[in-house]
Write a structure and sequence with these properties.
five-stranded mixed sheet; single chain; 36% helix; 9 helices; Udp-n-acetylmuramoylalanyl-d-glutamate--2,6- Diaminopimelate Ligase, Chain: A, domain 1; 2 domains; alpha/beta; 235 residues; 23% strand
Length: 235
């Protein structure tokens, strides 16, 4: 199909107007390549490994959650230059769905809620709160381990989830007011840990968001490229 047809389909799936203001100019088609799209690959991040794998597979389009171009560029050097060289020389397009996919029906937070079997879920401003019937060890298993709990180990009946980096005091207070017993997200800050109004369960950013991109790839018939950051637990 033509690249414009592909983009129209992606915008129906994750409308750009759902995105946070800080994503302006950072979502959608961020690198333009060939106009005809046949082979589509998908990943959480456009890492050097992901780009090389996609190029080797003959990708016309690489769809990712996180843009590799977070800030405006006045020079292209180092890691960014190497990455862009591989993308541009391959002729692939790079398409980003970030906070618009977080909020979309069937998007990142919906995928996480499904993975954790949350029931009767209701939306937060960014995330969801739902009934949780699985114990904390099972939550850890489904997320690949490496969980940390800030606060006392909670007896969870209702769990708040925000995929990605969501330990924000306003979101924590919103979750508490919606009846959550605990809050699951990634990348806790010390100041937030000190003041959190409910127990916080910290997973990795990748573990919380990659399932949505994997599910998207399955639904669309694309190939998913797995590239989690290396994490070694120390006894």
């Amino acid at each position: 199909m033509h690249v414009r047809t592909f983009i129209e389909g992606m915008e129906r799936l994750a409308p750009p107007e759902l995105a946070e203001e800080f994503d302006a100019g950072k979502i959608g088609l961020v690198v333009e390549g060939r106009t005809e799209i046949a082979n589509v690959f998908c990943a959480l991040d456009a890492t050097p490994f992901v780009v090389k794998e996609a190029a080797a597979g003959g990708a016309d389009m690489l769809v990712v959650h996180h843009t590799p171009l977070w800030t405006p560029l006045t020079a292209m050097t180092g890691r960014t230059a190497l990455l862009m060289r591989d993308i541009l020389s391959s002729g692939m397009n790079l398409y980003v769905m970030h906070t618009n996919f977080d909020r979309a029906d069937g998007g990142v937070n919906d995928a996480l809620a499904g993975l954790l079997s949350l029931g009767d879920s209701i939306p937060m401003s960014l995330g969801k709160v739902g009934s949780c019937t699985i114990p904390l060890p099972e939550i850890s298993r489904r997320l690949g381990g490496n969980l940390r709990v800030w606060g006392k180990i909670p007896q969870i009946k209702r769990l708040a989830i925000v995929a990605g980096s969501g330990f924000d005091m306003a979101l924590l207070e919103e979750a508490r007011d919606l009846g959550a017993d605990a809050f699951l997200s990634a990348e806790m800050k010390h100041s937030v840990a000190r003041s959190a109004p409910l127990p916080c369960i910290e997973a990795t950013h990748y573990a919380l968001e990659a399932p949505a991109m994997q599910q998207l790839a399955v639904r669309q018939g694309w190939e998913y490229i797995d590239d989690p950051p290396v994490l070694t637990s120390v006894p």
